[in-house]
Amino acid sequence: MENLETIQSQLSQAFSDAYITLVPNPILGAQSSLLIDPVHAVKIATYLKTTPGLQFDYCSNVTGVDWLAKDITEPIPAGSAPGTAANVKRLHEGYLEAVYHLYSMQLGHGPLVLRLRTKNRTTDTTLPSLTPVWRSAEFQEREIYDLFGISFEGHPDLRRLLMWDEFKDFPMRKDYSEPDDYEWEPTAHGAILTKAQAHQKIPTQTKEVTV
Questions:
Q1: Which residues contact 166 (CB under 8 A, 6 or more apart)?
Q2: Which of 5, 34, 151, 209 has its CA 20 to 30 A from that of 118?
Q3: The predicted structure's pLDDT at residue 185
Q4: What gap in Å lies between CA 5 and CA 9, rounded to an integer?
């Protein structure tokens, strides 16, 4: 397989108006990846699958990642007024990612790691589905939709996979809070019973002792 820089350059030439950037991973043995913009994602995915020399015909894994908002310290712009602090803090808004691991079964190379990123974690969490390109992404995109809350536009059957339809929130998000309402638990016991009693304000039963 060509190195990631070469693939990035090839994609940038084929899609000159697309955002394609290399995301390095400094950890020893870890895999760097390509971040592509959602607008061109399906066309880029099709190109990666069908272009001779690339032919990434198999998507082995798709996973979600939740990036919380965080404060970032940046140097002040050049030409700022004298006496201005050396650095400035700004809030970097959180976002969600779908990460695809691609292989070529015909050519025997891979993985190529692709990232798609939402605009934020709240009001704009839609990404294009790559299931029309790699059918193996279907259930895994459904799992991400269910647990992280990314909506995949163009998915052939986007519905919850692990949680029930009435379930609220997304259990794999980093700020997810476990509810204390376990009314659905038909045989509450142990720690679950304790939480259910606290939520429902059910007094704990005590035994009367006759002296």
A1: none
A2: 5
A3: 56
A4: 6
